[in-house]
Amino acid sequence: MKNLSAIRQWAALALVAVLALITTGQLVLQAQNLGAAPQTNVAVQGQTGAQPEGAFLNLVNWIGNVIAPVGAALAIAGGLVSYIAGRGVMRYVVTALGCLAVSGVTRLLEFWIQQGGGGVS
To answer: Domain limits of the chain?
Structure first.
């Protein structure tokens, strides 16, 4: 019983930490709002003008080019370990395919963002 209580305490602490991180992140994102029109060479208070402008594209690049492929590779490695141990591997295969799909969609978003900068032709 003591062990279950300790697990619940850690889970509650982790939940509070995640909620605090989400709340803090929301405040930081609102603080960097430049308005409806894109601003160039205009600094948000406490920031340089270069930081807020490409943030969305950088996030899409990071997820599509780094996080999702690494997640797919880890899922494949987990599937190999599971296969060697004689357990099912389908969940790992589906996870790897899902990570690669996320990577493909974010690369598509990156392409659309780059093409959208020139306007409609």
So the answer is: 1-31, 52-121
